[in-house]
């Protein structure tokens, strides 16, 4: 089991008002799963992903990631776990505009202490894997939205994370680029990558093998869709 959330609550304070963003979330995700999280705007999807990604702490409850009880760890250790184990992909790509595709992907490798040669070789290999071998020296703003998201995916994969987290990764893309990005996620999934993805896209949610629905901060559905076995003979 990679992710275990037990009775997670998250309450934001907005002035004098308490906003309950997550209410009693209990959830388990195994290695190799591809999970889609759906739900209306404001239902708590991003809050949940931020907790799973160690970007924020729950108000109460337990979070175990890969055997570590992460919500008892100090921030210093949490940062290390986040850098090593988690790759993030956002709706708006979050690339550095004044850096090339290659440099954007090298960055997390540099932070992890890799040598310059390893940084360059690995970044080139990852960009090739996402189909951008002919765009290595392009700056982010010289790339299409779909290409920028590919760079972001390559960057997220740089330190071989156990877990890939994506918050509306196709939300800013035209429908064809969105389909291409989804195909890339499916390819990564087939190669064994664990993925948790927030999506508004009914097509993506429909294709996912597991779909979790949030409403008002609670899990209201958790469905596994198994493909029927092919009939032999
Ligand atoms: N930093 C914050 N401070 C106060 N309330 C917040 C904050 N972030 C989110 N919320 C509230 O928490 C709820 C869940 O938000 P969010 O997780 O962003 O939902 P979603 O991603 O599903 O749209 C919403 O009611 C939102 O207004
Ligand atoms: Mg959100």
Entry keywords:
binds adenosine-5'-diphosphate, Rossmann fold, 7 helices, alpha/beta, 233 residues, binds magnesium ion
Q: What letter string, H or E per element, gives the SSE order?
A: EEEHEEHEHHHEHEHEE
Helix content: 25-40%
**CATH topology, what is it called?**
Rossmann fold
Mind telling me the C-alpha Rg? 18 Å
Give the number of helices.
7
Number of domains: 1
Ends apart, CA distance between termini:
36 Å
Judged by helices, strands and strand pairing, the structural class is alpha/beta
What proportion strand? Answer: 25-35%
Within CATH, the superfamily carries the name P-loop containing nucleotide triphosphate hydrolases
For the record, the CATH architecture stands as: 3-Layer(aba) Sandwich
Query: Outline, from the CA principal axes?
Result: globular
Low-confidence stretches: none
Mean pLDDT: 94
How would you portray this structure in words?
By secondary structure, this protein is an alpha/beta fold. The protein has one domain (3-183, 194-224): P-loop containing nucleotide triphosphate hydrolases (Rossmann fold). The protein contains seven helices and ten strands. It has a six-stranded mixed β-sheet with strand order 6-7-8-3-9-10, sandwiched between helices. Strands 2-1-4-5 form a four-stranded antiparallel β-sheet, covered by helices on one side. A hairpin with a 2-residue loop joins β1 (3-14) and β2 (17-29). α3 crosses α4 and α4 (116-129) packs across α5. The chain is globular, with a radius of gyration of 18 Å. The model has no long low-confidence stretch (mean pLDDT 94). Magnesium ion (MG) is lined by residues 45-46.
């Amino acid at each position: 089991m990679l992710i275990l959330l037990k009775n997670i609550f998250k309450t934001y304070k907005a002035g004098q008002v308490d906003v309950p963003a997550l209410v009693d979330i209990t959830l388990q995700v195994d290695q190799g799963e591809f999970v889609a999280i759906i739900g209306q705007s404001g239902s708590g999807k991003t809050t949940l992903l931020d907790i799973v990604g160690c970007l924020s702490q729950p108000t109460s409850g337990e979070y175990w990631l890969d055997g570590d009880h992460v919500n008892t760890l100090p921030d210093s250790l949490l940062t290390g776990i986040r850098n090593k184990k988690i790759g993030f992909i956002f709706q708006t790509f979050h690339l550095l505009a004044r850096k090339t595709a290659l440099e954007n992907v090298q960055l997390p490798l540099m932070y992890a202490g890799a040598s310059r040669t390893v940084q360059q070789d690995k970044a080139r290999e990852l960009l090739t894997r996402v189909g951008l071998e002919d765009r290595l020296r392009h700056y982010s703003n010289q790339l299409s939205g779909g290409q920028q998201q590919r760079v972001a995916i390559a960057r997220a994969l740089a330190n071989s994370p156990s877990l890939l987290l994506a918050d509306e990764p196709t939300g800013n893309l035209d429908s064809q680029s969105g389909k291409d990005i989804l195909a890339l996620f499916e390819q990564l999934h087939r190669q064994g990558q664990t993925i948790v993805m927030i999506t508004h896209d009914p097509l993506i949610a429909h294709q996912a093998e597991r779909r979790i629905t949030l409403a008002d901060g609670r899990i209201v559905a958790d469905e596994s869709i198994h493909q029927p076995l092919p009939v032999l003979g």
